[in-house]
Amino acid sequence: MSDVKVLAQDVHKSFGDNHVLQGINLTIRKGEVSCLLGPSGSGKSTFLRCINHLETIDSGRIEVDGTLIGYREHGDKLYELQPSVAAQQRENIGMVFQRFNLFPHMTAFENITCAPIFVRGERKSEARESALALLEQVGLADKADAYPRELSGGQQQRIAIARALAMKPDLMLFDEPTSALDPELVGEVLEVMKSLAETGMTMIVVTHEMGFAREVADSVTFMDGGVVVEHGTPEEVLVHPQHGRTRAFLSKVL
Ligand code: ADP
Ligand code: MG
Question: Please, what is the angle between helix 124-137 and helix 153-165, to 10°?
Answer without folding.
Answer: 130
